[in-house]
Amino acid sequence: MVACQQLVDAMQDKLSAARFKDFTINGLQVEGNERVQRVMTGVTACQALLDEAVAWEADMVLVHHGYFWKNEPASVTGIKHRRFATLLGHDINLVAWHLPLDAHPDIGNNALLGKRMGWQVDKALDGPLGQGLLYIGDANQALSHAEFGEHLHQQLQRPPLGIQGHSRPLKRICWCTGAAQDMIEQAAEGGADVFVSGEISERTTHLARELGISYFAAGHHATERDGIIALGEWLASQFDIEHRFVDIDNPV
Fold first, then answer.
1. What is the pLDDT of residues 145-161, one digit of tens each?
2. What residue ranges define each of the domains in the chain, with the CATH number in brackets?
3. Which of 31, 39, 215, 240 could cross-link 163 (Cys pair, CB 3.0–4.6 Å)?
């Protein structure tokens, strides 16, 4: 078994988490057992994931989406109470890494989405690689709108929602996982043929058409699975712990 704080410190250093100003708390969010043998990873710390952790007798739940979001009600009632009661009642640590896990140049969500899709990363438009979130690069080959959507579907096992903003082949790609649809103007200004993110808003359709850039909402959950898996695998490679990823289905 390994000290919980040792694992948290190692992840803090790996992800350079101190660089980020986030909308939530990165690191240890709920304290449990001081010693950790089993680490369960998942995208979001929902009740279904916590129940899996209890059944597996996990000592730590490691996620991308934890708790304590900006402007979230502070009261521990209802769903929040049940989640906290599960963690505290079974002495399970909850650790979450949000923007640091999106941005990491090797095991981050954006880097791994690009790798999965076969996109060449040139740079981030909103900062240096390792800190920026809006990646841009080229596909191995230019694809039509329909072909691009099918490639996303095959790789992520989720049909994307696509908005065709022009009739050009899609070669220059900008992407940011999760709920980054409002970065579409930056993507268009950066010269991308297509912007890929996780979610879509009503306004995104009109922006894509008027900016002349195609847009694909490939799924918030689907675009952010790989990072937390990679972090768990990295942790298991560095320490004598067991790691298990559980994919709680989410169509969004």
1. 999 999 999 999 999 99
2. 2-102+225-245 (3.40.1390.30), 104-218 (3.40.1390.30)
3. 215
Nearest Cα neighbor of 170 from 206, 127, 211, 214 is 214
Helices (H), the chain: 4-15, 47-56, 78-89, 99-103, 109-117, 145-156, 184-189, 202-211, 220-223, 226-238
Give the rounded percent of residues in the chain with a pLDDT score beyond 90: 100
Q: What is the CA radius of gyration of the chain?
A: 19
Task: Tell me how long the chain is.
Answer: 252
Instruction: List pLDDT tens digits, range 170-214.
Output: 999 999 999 999 999 999 999 999 999 999 999 999 999 999 999
Two tokens at 191?
A: 């010269």
Asked whether the beta carbons of 59 and 32 are under 8 A apart, the reply is: yes
* The two three-digit tokens of residue 239, written as one number: 């320490």
- Measure the CA–CA gap between 133 and 127, rounded to whole angstroms: 8
- 88-102 pLDDT, tens digit each: 999 999 999 999 999
SS3 state of residue 171: strand
Q: Cα–Cα distance between 116 and 153 in angstroms, integer?
A: 12
DSSP string, 215-244: EEE--HHHHTSHHHHHHHHHHHHHSS-EEE
Kind and range of the H or E run holding 135: strand 135-143
